[in-house]
Specification:
With 913 residues, the chain is α+β, with helices and mostly antiparallel strands. Strands 23, 24, 25, 26, 27, 28 and 29 form a 7-stranded mixed beta sheet that branches. It has a 5-stranded antiparallel beta sheet with strand order 2-1-5-4-3, with helices on both faces. Helix 25 (847-858) links the parallel strand 27 and strand 28.
Length: 913
């Protein structure tokens, strides 16, 4: 020890000796008394404040619960009234009377039910309006419900515009609930039903639920004016009226929202809350007041607070007495030992040993004897350490130089890696975070401390426990190294993905003492992985789940159905009708926009738990999770059908489309999701056969029919290979001359097992598959070959024409004109000897089809429209087509002898051509 240090120590001891001395035991007693007093006083203030907060919280909770109960009752009132509004128009012959606007008939039909509705359902008003808003019939109770005719007309206009029921409240001299329901007849809105009910029964219902006194307050003037307040209704009015009036006066202005106050009166404490009623007319604000006696609750709280104070005070006093008894003697002994310890600071080791020398028999009698022994040991050790310090200083200086060089190399390597570094001193509980580590989160050097929680608390809540477990697992030796990916909070409040790696170091006893590692920013990589995962399970155009994700969710639903007997779900397989026409006529961009709009509408029609997926093209699948029964599934299917049938604006045009939907239910005990999806697809094709905007429930017979169609398709493929198809030639007679004008080639199939099959049994199957082009090529080739045979037998003067049906896919095929020209050259057939028949639907509003027809017309072929009248073309549209003949559909011709209008239609078509 240097001379200056010893001198400073002596001066300090002299200053201590010259001051006033007070024993440690008296200081401890004084400090303990002050601390206990402060704790007691602080707890008293805290108890008072806590009691006040608890009272306010209890009052707020009561008010919120009352507001919820009020909202629930009003909602139930509106729902029940709406239900009656939807049921009443279904009374026998009532819809027809309203549709005819026959007020007297409406009155006679509804009059028998009016009295029972007043008694059983508490309906006080019923009015029937025509579609134009005129009053057809009305029934009203003596109590005025406060709905003026001008206001009612506004409501009627709103219902006519939205075609949805409307629920409103109105207050005048009384408050009432009104419901307006549109009445549909013959597919249109034929009238409006208005039902009204007084809200007086709401007060009785709320009183039964809450057990509190309730009332209804009306105000004559503005919303914020308290003058003119009138109590329209109040339970126990004689006792409660003074309390309600005092509460309203103390609140002053009612701000149009729920509020409450506590009133002390007549030895009781009352909680009074005011809740505004939604007023559609906005003419007279109304409030529902609820009064609840909370005296007993307040008294229990105050009593509990006083008891807590007494217990705390007694405990504090007892603790003070025990501490004094325990500390008195040890502190006295400590005082004597403390006087000798300053000798160590002066390096007067011999003097210290002389002062602490005692009879050996007294050693180790208690802890203070151990303290004396420890002081003696310290004197020997300090004396030895002084000799070692100089040598250690020399060694440390050399090590510091080596560490500085190592630190420079480490810093350079860390900077080059661009990673954040961290070093956790497990024993001290401190963590060093490098500047780059902090910078990766957007923080500067002094914004993050040295505690481990500075790191863990910034990890996303969903990742935090996993990282903690991984750290602990590595420290416990269960894993060879630490490596985790997690999201780290940034300075701007966002999260970025990080990868952290680390390794722990243990001491000679195997106890971990340090752990160091690095942190790498992997945010861009994780985002790329998330996008790839999303793209793998979602449709790129509509962002809906794709087939893989749909089948996974269906598989989960099947597992759940296997565990729960009462669980039911459904699959809806939908296909857009006329999508190909829209896609071809308006091009693919418009078709994509239509698919996006359909996807949006489908999502609006289902519940959040359901799944809407796109399988490709115009096919959508909806997984209805947890439905009650088939009726609910049908309701959803009908809602979807209505929504999709609404027009869509594409490329400046109003386009209409529709859905054909097949439905399969999980109650058929499916084992695989693919089977259930297959059955829904099968049901969809049955729905499409019935017409547009239809849905069909799957039954096993459909599957058997699909298997039969698959078998026919397979047999047809083999039949084409084995040349089983035959052409029959139906003569065409000129009705004016009676001469033979030509033939129509009709394809027939001689099935090896079923015999001769007409086209109706295999042509639709060929059209749905890729076989129609092969069948068409065979028909064209066979017809050309037959014409060549006739010419060889009858000579070159044969000028009969052969009508051949041409599929739209043939027409749109690239190189079709060259193909048919090659056939003509091969068999030496003139183009005029072939008449190509095209279905009307294949060319309607399709400029590309018209262009193809013109090419064939220029080559010399005769063209014919087949089954005219089944499509959507107008008669004026015929003038745009390069055709020679129109074949009117038999649905018109076969009824000409029975229906004059069919004769007129056929005559008009013939005259137009």
């Amino acid at each position: 020890m240097s001379a200056a240090s010893r001198s400073a120590g002596k001066d300090y001891q002299a200053s201590v000796s010259s001051g006033h001395f007070l024993s440690l035991k008296w200081k401890a007693l004084l400090i303990l008394s002050i601390a206990l007093f402060a704790i007691n006083f602080g707890y008293f203030l805290f108890s008072q404040n806590n009691l006040h907060d608890f009272e306010q919280q209890q009052r707020q909770t009561l008010m919120e619960r009352e507001a919820q109960e009020l909202s629930g009752l009003l909602s139930n009132e509106a729902d029940s009234l709406s239900q009656f509004g939807e049921i009443l128009p279904s009374l026998p012959n009532l819809r027809e009377a309203i549709y005819r606007q026959d007020g007297e008939a409406v009155r006679q039909l509804f009059e028998p039910y009016w009295l029972s509705l007043q008694l059983d359902v508490n309906i006080s008003m019923a009015r029937f309006y025509a579609a134009n808003g005129s009053l057809l019939a009305a029934w009203e109770a003596p109590v005025a419900l406060g709905a003026g005719e001008e206001t009612v007309q506004q409501w009627i206009q709103q219902v006519q515009q939205t075609e949805r029921p409307l629920s409103v409240q109105a207050c005048a001299d009384n408050c009432a609930q009104f419901v307006l329901v549109p009445i549909l007849a013959h597919g249109e809105n034929s009238g409006i039903l208005l039902l009204g009910r007084s809200l007086g029964n709401v007060l009785l219902g709320l009183q039964e639920v809450t057990g509190a006194d309730t009332g209804l307050l009306l105000k004559k003037n503005s919303l914020h004016d308290t003058q003119g307040l009138r109590i329209a209704a109040l339970s126990r009015k004689k006792q409660m009226q003074p309390i309600v009036e005092q509460a309203a006066q103390r609140l002053g202005r009612l701000a149009g929202q729920s509020t409450g106050i506590v009133i002390n009166q007549i030895g009781h404490t009352w909680a009074v809350s005011f809740h505004p009623l939604n007023n559609a007319m906005d003419q007279r604000p109304a409030y529902l007041v609820i009064v609840r006696d909370i005296t007993a609750s307040i008294q229990r709280i105050e009593k509990a607070g006083n008891e807590s104070k007494i217990v705390l005070l007694a405990g504090v006093l007892l603790a003070e007495i025990l501490l004094l008894l325990i500390l008195w003697r040890p502190l006295s002994r400590l005082q004597s030992t403390a006087k000798s310890l300053p000798l160590l600071a002066e390096s007067r080791f011999s003097t210290l040993r002389s002062a602490l020398a005692h009879d050996p028999a007294r050693y180790l009698r208690d802890e203070f004897d151990q303290l004396d022994s420890t002081a003696l040991d310290l004197s020997y050790q300090l004396e030895s350490l002084e000799a070692q310090v100089f040598e250690q200083q020399r060694v440390l200086a050399h090590q510091v130089e080596e560490l500085d060089a190592e630190r420079e190399r480490f810093a350079l390597a860390a900077k080059g890696a661009n990673d954040g570094l961290w070093d956790w001193n497990i024993r001290l509980g401190e963590v060093y975070f490098s500047p780059r580590w902090k910078q990766m989160s957007g923080y500067v050097e002094d914004e993050i401390g040295t505690q481990l929680q500075e790191w863990l608390n910034r990890i996303h809540m969903d990742d935090r426990e996993r990282v903690k477990l991984a750290l602990q697992s590595h420290i416990d030796g269960d894993t060879p190294h630490f490596e985790q990916e997690y999201r780290l909070l940034q300075h701007d409040g966002s999260y970025r993905w990080m990868l952290s790696r680390g390794l722990s170091i243990a001491d000679s006893n195997g106890v971990p003492m340090r752990m160091s590692g690095s942190q790498t920013d992997i945010h861009l990589r994780k985002k790329a992985e998330e996008q790839l995962l999303h793209d793998a399970f979602h449709d790129a155009l509509t962002n809906l789940p794709n087939r893989a994700l749909l089948l996974d969710r269906m598989g989960q639903a099947l597992l759940r159905a296997g565990r729960q007997n009462d669980y039911l779900f459904a699959v809806l397989y939908s296909d857009l009708d006329r999508f190909k026409v829209i896609n071809d006529s308006l091009w693919h961009y418009a078709g994509d926009q239509l698919l996006i709009e359909v996807a949006t509408r489908l999502q609006r029609c289902v519940r959040p738990a359901d799944t809407v997926a796109r399988l490709g093209g115009d096919e959508f699948v909806i997984l209805l999770d947890g439905v009650k029964d088939l009726h609910e599934v049908k309701q959803i299917a009908e809602r979807i059908t209505r929504e999709i049938s609404k027009p869509v604006e594409l490329e400046g045009r109003e386009v209409f489309t529709a859905l054909s939907t097949g439905i399969s239910l999980s109650d058929m005990e499916y084992e695989k999701a693919e089977d259930m999806l297959r059955d829904a697809d099968t049901a969809m094709y049955h729905a499409k056969k019935q017409g547009e905007s239809r849905y069909q429930i799957f039954d096993p017979s459909m599957h058997e029919e699909a298997l039969a169609m698959m078998q026919i398709e397979a047999d047809l493929r083999r039949g084409l290979e084995k040349d089983e198809l035959k052409l029959h030639y139906q003569p065409i007679i000129d009705l004016k001359t009676g001469d033979l004008a030509g033939f129509e080639a009709l394809v027939r199939w001689f099935h090896p097992e079923r015999g001769l099959l007409p086209p109706v049994e295999f042509i639709p199957i060929a059209e749905e598959s890729d076989l129609m082009i092969q069948v068409g090529d065979w028909v064209l080739t066979s017809a050309c070959a037959q014409i060549a045979k006739w010419r060889g037998k009858l000579g070159n003067d044969v000028d009969y024409t052969v009508n051949v049906n041409l599929d739209s896919r043939h027409l749109m095929q690239d190189g079709f004109a060259r193909h048919i020209h090659a056939l003509l050259m091969r068999y030496e057939v003139k183009p005029q000897q072939l008449k190509l028949e095209i279905l009307e639907n294949a060319i309607v509003d399709n400029d590309k089809s018209i262009e193809k027809l013109q090419q064939l017309k220029d080559m010399g072929f005769k063209l014919c429209i087949d089954d005219f009248g089944t499509g959507y073309s107008s008669l004026s549209y015929l003038h745009r087509l390069p055709i020679d003949t129109v074949k009117i559909d038999r649905s018109f011709v076969s009824r000409m002898d029975k229906r004059e209008e069919d004769v007129a239609i056929v005559k008009t078509i013939v005259d137009s051509v």
